[in-house]
Amino acid sequence: MTAVPHSPARPRRRRTSMRRLVAGSGGYQRGMVVAGFAITGAVVVVALFAPLIAPYGYGQVQDAGTYFGSQHGPSAHHLFGTTVGGYDVFSRTVWGAQTALEVIVAGTVAALLLGTALGLVSGYLGGRLDGTLVILTDAIFAFPPLLLAIVMSIGVGGGRSGRWNGILATAVTVTILFVPQYFRVVRAETIRVKHEPFVESAKVVGVPRARILRRHVLPNATRTLPLIVTLNAGGAVMTLAGLGFVGFGIEPTSAAEWGYDLNRAQSDISAGIWWTAVFPGAAIVLTVLGVTLLGEGLNDIRDPRLRARRGARRTRRAPRWFPPRARLDGTTGTPPSAGTSTTAGTSTTAGKPTFPGGRGPVPGTARDDELLAVDGLSVTFATDAGEVSAVEDVSLRVRPGEIVAVVGESGSGKSVTARTILGLLPETGLARGSVLVGRQDVLRAGRRQLRRIRGRDIAMIFQEPSTALNPVFPVSWQIAEGIRAHRMRGGSDGSGRRGGHGRPNRRQARERAVELLDLVGIPEPRRRVGHYPHQFSGGQQQRIMIAMALALDAPLLIADEPTTALDVTVQAEILDLLRELRDTRGTSILLITHNMGVVADLADRVLVMREGRLIEQADTVSLFQHPRQDYTRRLLAAVPRIGGGQPTPTGSPAPAGSATLPASASATDDDEAVVRARDLVVDYPGRLGQPSFRAVDAVSFQISRGEVLGLIGESGSGKTTIARAVAGLVPASAGSLRVLGAQLVPGGPDRSLRRLRRDIGFVFQDPATSFNPKLTIAACIAEPIVVHESLPPAEVRRRVDDLLESVHLGAGYGDRYPHELSGGQRQRASLARALALRPRLVVADEPTSALDVSVQERVLEVFRTLQRELGFAALFISHDLAVVDALADRVGVLYQGRLVEEGARHTVLTNPSHDYTRRLLAASPVPDPVEQAARRVARGADRGTGPRAPRQAIRASS
User: Fold this and answer.
1) Does residue 533 sit in helix, strand or coil?
2) Which of 184, 156, 165, 175 is nearest to 109 (CA)?
3) Dihedral-angle region of residue 206 (phi above 0 means left; psi in -120 to 50 means alpha; beta otherwise)
4) Which end of the chain has fewer surrounding CB within 10 Å, N or C?
5) Burial 497-532 (b: 16+ CB within 10 A, else e)
């Protein structure tokens, strides 16, 4: 993630042309593109201007009535010599480029268009058409290519053909041979892409199928086609040459063809006559090489995630002695010592060697009691619009057994700092400074050194598990991968870390995976260890990421938002687990989070970052009770608390519903209902004979006009499934579901819902995958407006800019690609897209989970304001009970797919009637370290296990 929100708004990015992309690329990518353009361009120029370049015709054997005579070597009259038949080799080579170009254009373009169209339609629609096309292409694959080419040559031209018959035969052959390749690649990618959240987000707002195919599926499903096209262009040349070489090519009197010339040069090679074979062969090699290099380079620079900008390198090595960069206030970037409160411009350097003149500690040195020492770290990123600074002069320390929390707004540089510590910056990132893990400087380490550091010395829990987990491998394989990479076996070396060498066998790796899944609270770990990531809920995926980080018992963990997707009960258990790792094994943790309740519950020290700088640090109690910076005080003041939400008007009746009444008793008139569910059931079918899984079981609820219903419950309880059912993305299995007057019958949504798509806004749980990676943020937000409203482009962009401003993102962020924004910024952009058409119903699935508290406060206020102005109803899903309290009118509590409690917000959250709801409230952290410590002790006493439960007792409710 490379987000830099604090940088000034950049000028709006102009439409990126291929010329600017090539000019702005760097490294080997630019070299491949330039070399490929040069070679391919030369071949094209030679082909187009062959009559002017070639001194003789392709079939000419005499000049001014005089025959060229017998074979001659290269000379002034014949630059490449002559053949035994008297043909000029140079002229034949030049004219052969024209023949090759004609075959490439005719065959490759036809195969590209036909194969792509068939693969796109087949993969998206599926069914019998898909099965028939797969069988047909498999049959073509099974046919030997050269034999097929010979058959087509005989069929079209009788074996020996003239110019156009030969070109036609070869073009048809190339088309038939290469169509299956395009078809299978595009079909496979289409099947994958059509289930991505960014495609579903287009469906939700009513984007027509043709536009979805053209704008969302096609660009992502064909991302590798430039490379395939150029490879096939080379293949077309090779096919033409192969036909000529075996004697089924074009007659020399009809056209020049390199393969035929090589065929006739076989006898010359044994006689030492080299020129008749070298020059046609070199022409084939150069042509294939040129188009291949061109395809490789274009494939990279077309993708904004792969494009390397000019001058970008992974790190910039700094000299061992260099002065720290000056701060804006004129002070230097001196790293503060632990346990002291520090503001910008003040720090303590006791016990550290300093530069001459006392300007700060020496980068590249660390005390023996420090696992991590970061000095003067600065990170910048090269983008299409210029260089952007993400981190400026950050210094920090982490000691053994210490939990240090880094807090700050989304995009303040927290995650960039964490990724730099592990050497995970992309090619466009430049890092300067010193990052010591033990005694090893990560910024100066080689690949082998980094491999030894990662996993064994330091591990990371990534922020977005859905993108960090590999979708094609079961979780057991992914957990054991690190163990296999470091060749660790079971057993202990006395320090708590696993010792021994040699690869573990499959059984040992699986047992270790089961142990870790059980440790982090995955239900039925022995059965689910073989499942794939998509078979787990978002919270369970987060727990799997934690299990992967614990696989090698690294002494230092970097936890980047480890509880973002977790409900409060599982969050409390994970925090207990992390705390016990610290207490029993001495594991140090660098915790990156925006949840101040988690900070109060877990951290020993807190570092506050803003706009890429470290502005304050202190021990947790001191920082919460006596923050020194105004920014820190604003962060703490913005933290929502249960009981601090919307006030209930004095003297007015309480909102409809009670703590235990069913939805039918709590709802208003059905005519006022925007959403009405009765005994809703959603089943996911089993695979390979397995029984179906019931995600939602007989749930009834109703949402009236202008009402916000909050759904809470642990991960996997059915919240997201209900949201997707309401949006028509998941069919109901039984019961009744009516949305905006359209009946969603079991088995699939009613077609009438399609006409109402513009009235539904959806905020997806995972913002990273809900945006098309090939489009800018502005293009993604503008799509609902473009589809449903006929507005000029300037007006559409103005609307987009207003939406970005409404969610506290500058208009300049619209010109960035999704991967250039932080998780919180993407989530704000997702909210802006959901509100683009002023919908009547908004389904918000964890819309604030990745937002820091200050931005969350502003976004919630924006949501409340727009909800009051527009009067839309909302289904609001969150695991943060304080956020639900601040926004919802009524609250429903889900447990194992059932609605166990529903009623007015103030009743459910202050006087719950169900035991599960009471457990949720008890587990919700509060932003006060003293109060949270007392709650933790009380929670442990209620369990009868003390304040810290043994790891064997940590379980998650299913």
Assistant:
1) helix
2) 175
3) left
4) C
5) ebeeeeebeeeebbbbbbbbbbbbbbeebeebbebe
Q: What does 762-826 look like in DSSP terms, one character per residue?
A: EE-S-TTTSS-TTS-HHHHHHHHHHHH----HHHHHHHHHHHHHHTT--GGGGGS-GGGS-HHHH
Q: Cα separations (Å) of 390 from 380, 431, 611? A: 5, 10, 8
Nearest to 830 by CA among 902, 768, 785: 768
Which of 7-16, 74-83, 96-105, 503-512 shows the lowest per-residue confidence on average (mean pLDDT)?
7-16
What is the reported pLDDT for 359?
Answer: 31
State whether the Cα torsion 512-515-520-526 is positive or negative. positive
SS3 752: helix
Strand partners, 461: 559
Structure token digits, residue 214: 């053209």
User: Could you give the angle at which helices 630-637 and 853-870 cross, rounded to 10 degrees?
Assistant: 50
Q: Phi-psi region for residue 583, left (φ > 0), alpha (ψ -120 to 50) or beta?
A: alpha
- 725-776 tens-digit pLDDT: 888 888 888 888 888 888 876 655 555 566 778 888 888 877 778 888 888 9
Which residue type sits at 281?
G
Token pair for 178: 């290469």
Structure tokens at 228: 């395939």
Q: Among 856, 912, 853, 772, which Cα is nearest to 844's?
A: 856
**With 80 as the cut, is the pLDDT of residue 26 above it?**
no
- In this prediction, residue 288 carries a pLDDT of 79
446, amino acid identity: G
Question: In 3D, which of 875, 453, 471, 827 has the Cα closest to residue 663?
Answer: 875
- Give the distance, in angstroms, between the CA of residue 159 and the centroid of all CA atoms in the same chain: 52
Question: Which residues make Cβ contacts (< 8 Å) with residue 505, sequence separation at least 6?
Answer: none
Structural tokens at position 22? 């090539």
Q: Give the start-end residues of each E strand in 555-625.
A: 556-560, 588-592, 605-610, 613-619
Q: If DSSP codes are grouped into helix, strand and coil, which group holds residue 839? A: coil
From residue 946, alpha-carbon distances to 403, 586, 915 in Å are 21, 20, 21
**Which parts of 194-217 fold into alpha helices (H)?**
197-204, 209-211
Distance of CA 730 to the CA centre of its chain: 23
The tokens for 456 are 């064994």
Nearest C-alpha neighbor of 305 from the set 926, 820, 769: 820
Q: Whole-angstrom Cα distance, residue 297 to residue 307? A: 9
Work out whether the CA dihedral 99, 102, 104, 110 comes out positive or negative.
Answer: negative
To the nearest 10°, report the CA torsion of 181, 182, 185, 191: -130
The rounded distance, in Å, linking the Cα atoms of 783 and 777 is 10
Helices 163-193/109-125 angle, 10° precision:
30
105, two tokens: 């254009």
Give the containing element (helix H, strand E) for 683.
strand 673-684
CA 616 to chain centroid, in Å, comes to: 32
Q: Which residue has the tokens 């119903």?
A: 841
The per-residue b/e assignment along 398-429, b for 16 or more CB within 10 angstroms, e otherwise, is bbebbbbbbbbbbbbbbbbbbbbbbbbbbbbb
> What is the pTM for the complete model shown?
0.63
How far lies 34's CA from each of 22, 97, 176, 301, in Å? Answer: 8, 20, 31, 12
**DSSP of 381-444:** EEETTEEEEEEEEEEEEE-TT-EEEEEESTTSSHHHHHHHHTT---TTEEEEEEEEETTEEGGG
Cα distance between residue 287 and residue 93, in whole Å: 12
| pLDDT per position as a tens digit, 114-140 | 888 888 888 888 888 888 888 888 888
In this structure, are residues 395 and 335 in contact, taking their beta carbons and an 8 Å threshold? yes
- Three-state SS at 474: coil
